[in-house]
């Protein structure tokens, strides 16, 4: 295998480099497919304000602006032969079946019926320090789109945009809480941009950026000159996910005490929440502390190698399915290994008080950055839908990720086994906790790619 490349990060858009520090507000503006010259005018107008090479606002500014383009927009400005070399999964509409989006999550209901994915040309991603900065950046983007003749698409039936907001910090100052109460951001992939993966930064940059195709990290375009053109760009899968917080909290209340009868009901609820995620809600990995939270250990390294049957962490727990590190893989997974993506997300909607559904839309807006949608993002989605990539799972391979699995997938089980020294507890009617409301594949272009593709000086 060729040695890892050292990436010039000054040409990467900030979303790839990390969470945007000090920017608790996020807005995603969706734009329609433009005519070629309209796209060039829009990008030229916005380009001076895009943030490359840093995850902080520029000096004197209070917002970060990222721009990603969908396949229909790139098709307008790329030569036919170059466009054809982009990954097929990117050029095609998202494969809802492969993503496990059935039933209420079916693609026919995405974007609240306001538009379809093939009408999308671009996303502008805004990160702001406060409301006034967010509105100022929004006005700037909308004016640039209007001047270029590009209509805005509103994904909400009432005409609203996709806004998200930081909820609350996790314990000991690490991570941030999501609607289900878990601390997020402790296990985000850390990329070795200098080309030397280590324990501190274990992710090879070829898992994140295009232009370095090899057997271990396949990506498209795979060869020159298209590969050179898009070098250091990334594919971006955007997901709008509704979270049924009321159903989740009721599930903990109803199922926790019977599963863990020796515990006080409140403790049993938290134990069940930990078994579903693979972490206590304060971020402590069960692999490190299976009996009680220890938030100071939330970002320590761990594997599942010493827990083959899931005594500490059930084999279908969310973090174990998404990153089964140390676990023996089988089938194709034994060859391809564990897909790595850089994940960024922010909760949207107000927090729910109690466990009664108030009818308010809430969830998470997720962004998954990778070099191959098919080999990384889609493969992880398939693992969540069918737990069949390791011998630790039942031979039928029909169990699902406990949190993000879609029980409407044909043939999927609704069982969740929780092994213990005294026997195996079991949930036989695992509910759906999530619903997909939209998916869009985008490209986050590097500075050089944007300059060349859009004809910038």
Description:
- With 457 residues, the chain is an alpha+beta fold.
- The chain has two domains: 9-241 and 443-453, no CATH class; 244-337 and 383-438, no CATH class.
- It has 14 helices and 13 strands.
- It has helices at residues 14-17, 36-46, 71-77, 80-83, 88-91, 96-99, 131-148, 226-229, 245-259, 265-277, 318-322, 332-336, 373-385, 447-453, and strands at 25-32, 63-70, 120-128, 152-153, 162-165, 176-177, 183-184, 234-243, 342-348, 363-370, 416-420, 423-427, 434-444.
- Strands 1, 2, 3, 4, 5, 8, 9, 10 and 13 form a nine-stranded antiparallel β-sheet that branches. Strands 6-7 form a two-stranded antiparallel sheet.
- A hairpin with a 5-residue loop joins β6 (176-177) and β7 (183-184).
- α9 crosses α10 (265-277).
- The radius of gyration is 22 Å and the shape is globular.
- The model has no long low-confidence stretch (mean pLDDT 94).
DSSP E strands, number: 13
Tell me the count of domains: 2
Distance between the termini: 37 Å
How many helical elements? Answer: 14
Low-confidence stretches: none
Mean of all residue-level pLDDT scores: 94
What proportion of the residues form beta strands (DSSP E)?
Answer: 15-25%
Summarize the structure.
The chain is α+β, with helices and mostly antiparallel strands. The protein has helices spanning 14-17, 36-46, 71-77, 80-83, 88-91, 96-99, 131-148, 226-229, 245-259, 265-277, 318-322, 332-336, 373-385, 447-453; strands spanning 25-32, 63-70, 120-128, 152-153, 162-165, 176-177, 183-184, 234-243, 342-348, 363-370, 416-420, 423-427, 434-444. It is 25% helix and 18% strand.
């Amino acid at each position: 295998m060729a040695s890892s490349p050292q990436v010039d990060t000054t040409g990467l858009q900030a979303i790839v480099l990390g969470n945007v520090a000090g920017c608790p507000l996020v807005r995603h503006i969706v734009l329609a497919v433009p005519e070629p010259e309209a796209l060039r005018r829009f990008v030229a107008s916005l380009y001076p304000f895009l943030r490359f090479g840093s995850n902080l606002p520029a000096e004197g500014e209070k917002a970060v602006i990222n721009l990603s383009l969908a396949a229909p927009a790139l098709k307008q400005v790329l030569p036919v032969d170059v466009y054809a070399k982009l990954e097929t999964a990117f050029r095609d509409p998202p494969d809802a079946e492969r993503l496990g989006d059935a039933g209420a999550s079916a693609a026919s209901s995405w974007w609240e019926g306001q538009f379809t994915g093939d009408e999308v040309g671009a996303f502008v991603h805004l990160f702001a320090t406060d409301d006034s900065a967010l509105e100022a950046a929004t006005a700037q983007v909308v004016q640039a789109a209007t001047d270029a003749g590009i209509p805005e698409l509103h994904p909400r039936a009432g005409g609203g945009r996709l806004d998200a907001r930081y909820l609350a910090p996790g314990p000991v100052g690490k991570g941030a809480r999501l609607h289900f109460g878990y601390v997020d951001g402790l296990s985000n992939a850390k990329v070795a941009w200098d080309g030397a993966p280590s324990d501190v930064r274990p992710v090879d940059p070829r898992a994140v950026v295009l232009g370095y195709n090899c057997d271990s990290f396949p990506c498209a375009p795979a060869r020159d000159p298209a590969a050179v053109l898009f070098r250091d760009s990334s594919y971006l899968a955007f997901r709008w996910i509704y979270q049924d917080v009321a159903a989740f909290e009721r599930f903990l209340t109803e199922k926790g005490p019977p599963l863990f009868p020796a515990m006080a009901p409140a403790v049993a609820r938290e134990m069940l929440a930990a078994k579903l995620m693979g972490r206590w809600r304060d971020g402590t990995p069960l692999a490190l502390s299976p009996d009680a939270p220890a938030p100071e250990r939330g970002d320590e390294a761990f594997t599942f190698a010493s827990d083959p049957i899931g005594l500490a962490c059930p084999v279908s727990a969310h973090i174990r399915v998404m990153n089964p590190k140390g676990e023996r893989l089988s089938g194709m997974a034994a060859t391809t290994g564990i897909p790595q993506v850089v994940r960024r997300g922010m909760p949207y909607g107000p927090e729910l008080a109690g466990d009664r559904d108030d009818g308010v839309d809430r969830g998470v807006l997720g962004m998954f950055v990778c070099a191959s949608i098919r080999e990384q993002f889609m493969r992880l989605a398939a693992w969540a839908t069918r737990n069949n990539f390791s011998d630790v799972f039942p031979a039928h391979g029909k169990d699902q990720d406990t949190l993000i699995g879609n029980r409407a997938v044909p043939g999927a089980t609704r069982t969740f086994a929780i092994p213990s020294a005294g026997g195996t507890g079991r949930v036989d009617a695992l509910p759906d906790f999530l619903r997909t409301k939209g998916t869009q594949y985008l490209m986050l272009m590097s500075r050089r790619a944007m300059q060349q593709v859009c004809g910038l000086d």
